[in-house]
Amino acid sequence: MKRLYIGNTTSDTDRLVTELATQNNTVNHGLITKASDITEDGFYHSTVVDITPAEIAKLDCDIFLLDQPKESFSTTKEYHDTQQLVNVNNTYWQQLIKDNKSFCIFPFISHSLNHENTTLCCRSKQPVAKTEDFDWNTSLLDIRNNMLQGTRIDNCSGCYKVEDSGGISARQRQTIDWSRKLDMSSVEDLNFSKPIMYDVFPNNTCNLMCRMCIPEYSVLIQREQNDLNDYPATNWDYIDLEDAQVVYVAGGEPTAMLDFQKFLDRCEQEKRLDMEIRINTNANKISERLFEKLNRFKNIVFTVSIDGYGCANDYSRWLSSWENISKNIQRIADKGHSVNFNITVSIYTIFSIYELLKYLDDNYSKYIVNIEYVSLHDNVLNPFVFEYSDKMLNKIASITKMDIYYNNKNLQNFVQGLLTNTKSSTLNVEKLKKFFEYNDNLDKLRDSKLQDYIPELEEKRQLLGVDHG
Q: Are 127 and 114 in contact (CB under 8 A)?
């Protein structure tokens, strides 16, 4: 009989397993860090710090959770991660998001600042108020009540669309993650007098021209399109540092914004170096000056956006350099900051999705991967507009053998949906034509050629019966 027990990181875990082994007339072989450590009959133990979900998935033995109080774990996060590792769910919150198709935790904890407007979260672009008129206690009251009653909110259509198509949305993931982070037992605990999290879209300063982006988030695209609209800068003073636990900064590109560095200086002046700061970055260029400021903080999390491997990323995220990005990801990790990844899958990404995930699996298999489909007008970057070869389908299927797949439940769900969608994808001449019209216009403006970056996608032009020359 082989049995693995998962517990906390104290010596109590080894003591309990030794007692259990004695009671069952076997031995405690001690701590393991990988599946291959279990070689003979007996009891073993491990922790979320020592073993990954990918290694757990390789085990052919019984797995049990030790009966240890929450207070015995180093942090509440470690406790909840331990529960999740052995599939013991936080039943209240899991049941809530299953039964209530509207509820999201963000309107109860977060203030999202998008230029001069307040929105419900970083994914919702529909304003709920001008920020100068926003009141935390009253402006979201109707939305909160509707959510508690299960009434869907127009502002949240993006998440609902993901769920209705069988996916796991940010609403679902973030509600569970934050309930664990805050160690809350029910919605009755959601009584914050001030926001504890802030989403910030400061301005459209950016050093890239991503093909799935718009002028509101890239000044270079604004200039390219001769867009004369005014996109006011967000006022950072609306962030109340006294109670803030997390500030998430998106873009544009935060690492290129002087206002972001000024905000870091303010945090230091107000002695808030303990606050978690999440930075959504393209990682194309990060100065040592910025790192010097960030290194003073205790909890910096970089979310690196990458939407393809190598040349495919450089093309879709125009003006980026894969060489620079890969070096900067390693710089972030080497400096001791946390890293996770955002991937938006589009028609540009699909042909290198295996290579991208293989790169992450080889180098960062224990890191979090957030992945979803790109959203752009008319769904012009939809990858399911032609048939995929068996070779391509097999490559996508082989992602399920990677450690990073087992270490990320969101990725597991997405890849399963991706397999279903690619298998059922058929030629849609009208939509494929719209894509090439959209992309050819960008190539003309940027003096670029799709053939030079993603030749597999350029070959699909033949399906239209058009010679591009």
A: yes
Encoding tokens for residue 350? 């699909």
Name the pLDDT band for 90 (thresholds 50, 70, 90): low
Banded pLDDT at 140 (limits 50, 70, 90): very high
User: What DSSP assignment string belongs to 349-395?
Assistant: TGGGHHHHHHHHHHHHTTS-EEEEE---GGGTT-S-SS---HHHHHH
Q: What SS3 state is found at 215? A: helix
Q: How far is the C-alpha of 406 from the C-alpha of 172, rounded, in Å?
A: 19
The residue with tokens 């690196």 is: 304
Rounded to whole angstroms, the Cα distance separating 197 from 199 reads 7
* DSSP string computed for 226-251: T-----PPP-GGG--TTT--EEEE-S
CB atoms within 10 A of CB 194: 12
pLDDT at 375: 86
419-437 confidence digits (pLDDT tens): 999 999 999 999 999 999 9
For residues 364 and 327, the answer to whether their CB atoms sit within 8 Å is no
Confidence label for 181 from pLDDT (cuts 50, 70 and 90): confident
Helix (H, G, I), strand (E, B) or coil at 24: coil
Q: Which residues face 344 on adjacent strands?
A: 372
Nearest C-alpha neighbor of 210 from the set 306, 350, 325, 353: 306
Q: Identify whether 252 is preceded by a cis peptide bond (ω within 30 of 0).
A: yes
C-alpha R_g of the chain: 24
The strand pair at 117-119 and 246-249 is best described as unpaired
CA-to-CA separations, 135 to 111, 143, 193, 195, 354, in angstroms, rounded: 10, 13, 11, 11, 46
Query: Quick one: pLDDT band at residue 88, thresholds 50, 70, 90?
Result: low
Asked if residue 186 lies in contact with residue 148, where contact means CB atoms within 8 angstroms, the answer is: no
Cβ atoms of 212 and 105 closer than 8 Å = no
Average confidence score pLDDT of the chain: 94
How far apart are alpha carbons 372 and 307 in whole angstroms?
Answer: 10
Give the angle subtended at the CA of 312 by the CAs of 309 and 313, to the nearest 5°. 70
Report the pLDDT averaged over residues 122-151: 95
Q: What is the pTM of this model?
A: 0.89
